[in-house]
Amino acid sequence: MRDLLPILKTLNKNKASPLLLILQIALTFTILVNAIYMMVLKERELVQPTGLAESQLFSFRTHLEGSDEEKNAALDTDLADIRALASVESVSTITSMPLTNWGRSLDVGLTPEEDERITHAGYYGSDDTIVDTLGLRVVAGRNLQHNDVVHTYFDGHTESASVLVSQDLAHKIRPNDWRGVIGETIYVESVPQKVVGIVETMKSPWRFWYAYDMTVISSVREHYEESIIVVKAKPGQREIAMEEVQALMLKKPGRQLDAFKSFEQIKTENLQADYAVSQTLKAVIAALACVTMLGIFGQARYTVNKRRKQIGTRRALGATQADILRYFMIENAVVSLFGITLGIIIAITANIYLVNYFGLTSVPGDYLIAGAIVMLLAGQLAVTYPAMIAARVPPAIATRTA
Fold this sequence. Notes:
Number of helices: 10
Distance between the termini: 31 Å
Strand content: 15-25%
Strand order of the largest sheet: 3-4-10-7-9-8
Helix content: 40-55%
Largest sheet: 6 strands, mixed, barrel
Structural class: alpha+beta
């Protein structure tokens, strides 16, 4: 590394341009590492499993009329008619659906005291068919049974009943023994509910909520003016099932259907903003990387043009093209390392601030190391062409006057 000391002397003599490039690399590194980490988090959210049989599900709202008994009977008829269709595997009524941003969020605790609440959770009221319809997996305890089901007109969460809880909620209630929640009485909005089973994954209606993974599925079936029906089609027959169910329901006098969508449509609409953010972050990352590489390229070209006579003199004194190429590559590596080091310091400082004041997740050290390697390689790639131009400067140029 005999070129290192001359390089450091040259950089110390001409500070302005290298310092500007070091600052550019440092700031770019800080922004890139954080932007890439944010993009990775967003991408993970986009593919996060919901625990549902997504490719088979669709749902809709329907309006019921008459007395409570008539609404209940009409709902029973609707479910039976849909279940009889050849393209349908299962059907249930439910108070809301995951990712719809509409539903109930309730306090959950081991006592009825409000100040002893453990967490919030999303609440779903349904019946003994809901696990099969949604495609949920019971990992402890048992499924809801027909004799668990309670009928009510409205506000089913005020009724005591048997409930299923998500595994994440079970972990929250009993961190050291989540299966121990089976058979316990929990209090949902201070109302006692008996936990009979735990489902592996079930999401609440609000993805941005801190309790997104915490859910309670109650065996209370509500029947009022507007009911939500969720249908599980047979594999590969969802489009056919949607057409048949829509035609069937619209034949009923005075019946209206709203929000008639496949679950994938619901999910796409909910994730649309995150998808846009992810694409924007990708564009920002690409733009920053290009700007930085262009900055390194421009700085290297400027340096080569400025030192042409000096390069020619070195060539006349016996320096080979490989020596000149190596010199500029090492010089760029030194500048890049200074910039990356400063960028790591800024990134760590910014991370500490963001974690302490905004509760954001800190960027893992792996991202800093990977970012440093990428920035160094990008710098070497950007300087390669100007360094090759420098290597081709003829020795004769040393004899020319300025």
